[in-house]
C-alpha cells in the first residue's frame, strides 16, 4: 500500500510538471520537451503512407490476444496499451510496447504470441473535429496482425524502443521498478487499412515499411 | 462509384449541419439535438459503477474476434466499432452495434461469435486533460468478454438498439441502405476493469447490470 501511494505521488508530480493548459501531451525528445502538432494525413489513396501515419501519431492501441484467463479461455481478448513506433521525428512502422509479465494480455501472449493491434484516428480529436463518426471510414484506422516478440535486454533495439516509448509517454520512466518491465514489438504479417468508402484494403507489408507517414509520393 | 459519391455528399451535408465549433459531438434525443457534457466518473472503488460509466460514455470500442481471413486465419483480430449502451439519458450496460454482413469482423463472428470489447476513457480527452498516460491505470478501461448476438428485426429491442445508436451517432441514419445493416449486442459473460493501481479487477456481471453509471452508493 505504501509503495502504491509513493508511486501515485511520483506520478502526480510528474504529470503536473508536464501538463499544458490545453491538455496537449508533452513529447520529450533528446532531453528537451517539445509540444508537437501532427501534420495533416497523407492522401487517402496512398494507403501505405496513411497506415504509417495512423500508426505513428497513435498514442495507444487496442491489442487482441487469445485469452488464457479463467472463465474466458480461448476467447479473443482485447486490451489497451500505450504504443510508439518511434520518437516523434522518427517513425519506423514497428509498434513497440512496454510490458510487465504481471499484465493480463502479457500472460496470454506467453502462451500464444499471435496478436492483432488496431490504431485509429478516432482516439484523438481529429475525427470529432471533422464531424466523422468513429465508424465512418474516413476516420482512418489500421489493423496490424502478426506475432509479438520480446526485445532482448541491453541491445541497440532495446535502447531504441525505450526512447520511442519514454519520449512520448513521459510517465513511463516513473512506473514501479519492481514489475520486471520489458519491451516488445509486433512482427507485422498482415495489414488492413480503412480510410475511405468501399471497405478495408490490404496494405502490402513491404510497401508499408518503405512508406513515409509525412511525405507521400502521391498528390491528394 | 456514383453511389459512393452521392453517399459522400449526403454524409458531408449531415456532419456540417451537426458540427459545433469546438468539435463536441451532437447527441440527438427525441428528435431534438442536445449537446451533452458527461458528469464526473463514480468513485474508483465502486468498480461496477465505473465499468457502467466507461461503457455508457464511450462513443466507440475495440472489438476482438477470431479471424477467418486469408493469411491470418485463427489469429485474434481487433477492429473499431461505434457503440452505444443506450441514448445519453438511459444506460443499459449492454453494448449495441450496427453491423453490415460485408464487414470483416462480422464475417468472423458468423463463424465464431465469441468476442471481446474494450472501452477506455483514453478515447476522449479526459485522460490527456488529467495528464494520465493511456496506459496509466487511472485512465479507466473496461474489458467485456462474451458472445455476440443478432437482434431480431421488428422487435422492441431492435427499436431500442436503433435509438441507442442513431441518437448518439447521427450519421448512421444516412449510411448506405443497400448494405443489409442489422443490430447486434454482446451477451456479457465476464468483465475486467482497470481503474486504479494494483491490477485489473473482475466485476461481477450481475452487480454491473444492477449498478448506475452516474449514481454511486459509495462516496469518493
From TrEMBL, chains A, B:
Gene3D superfamilies (alphabetical): Electron Transport, Fmn-binding Protein, Chain A
Record keywords: Glycoprotein, Secreted, Signal
GO cellular component: cytoplasm; endomembrane system; extracellular space
Residue ranges occupied by any CREG-like beta-barrel domain in the UniProt entry: 42-209
Subcellular location per the Swiss-Prot or TrEMBL entry: Secreted
Primary site of residence: secreted
Similarity comment: family membership: Belongs to the CREG family.
Record protein name field: Protein CREG1
Organism: Armadillidium nasatum
Gene from which the chain derives: Creg1
Amino acid at each position: 500500500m505504501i509503495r502504491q501511494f509513493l508511486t501515485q505521488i511520483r506520478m502526480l508530480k510528474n504529470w503536473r510538471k508536464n501538463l499544458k493548459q490545453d491538455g496537449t501531451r508533452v513529447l520529450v525528445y533528446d532531453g528537451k520537451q517539445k509540444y508537437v502538432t501532427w501534420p495533416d494525413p497523407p492522401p487517402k489513396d496512398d494507403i501505405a503512407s496513411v497506415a504509417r501515419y495512423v500508426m505513428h501519431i497513435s498514442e495507444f492501441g487496442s491489442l487482441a490476444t487469445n485469452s488464457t484467463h479463467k472463465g474466458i479461455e480461448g476467447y479473443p481478448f482485447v486490451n489497451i496499451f500505450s504504443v510508439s513506433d518511434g520518437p516523434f521525428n522518427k517513425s519506423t512502422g514497428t509498434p513497440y510496447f512496454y510490458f510487465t509479465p504481471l499484465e493480463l494480455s502479457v500472460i496470454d501472449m506467453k502462451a500464444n504470441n499471435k496478436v492483432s493491434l488496431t490504431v485509429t484516428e478516432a482516439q484523438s480529436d481529429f475525427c470529432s473535429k471533422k464531424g466523422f463518426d468513429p465508424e465512418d471510414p474516413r476516420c482512418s484506422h489500421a489493423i496490424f496482425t502478426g506475432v509479438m516478440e520480446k526485445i532482448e535486454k541491453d541491445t541497440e533495439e532495446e535502447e531504441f524502443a525505450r526512447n520511442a516509448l519514454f519520449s512520448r509517454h513521459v510517465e513511463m520512466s516513473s512506473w514501479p521498478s519492481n514489475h520486471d518491465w520489458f519491451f516488445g514489438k509486433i512482427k507485422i504479417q498482415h495489414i488492413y487499412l480503412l480510410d475511405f468508402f468501399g471497405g478495408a484494403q490490404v496494405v502490402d507489408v513491404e510497401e508499408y515499411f518503405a512508406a513515409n507517414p509525412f511525405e507521400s509520393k502521391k498528390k491528394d
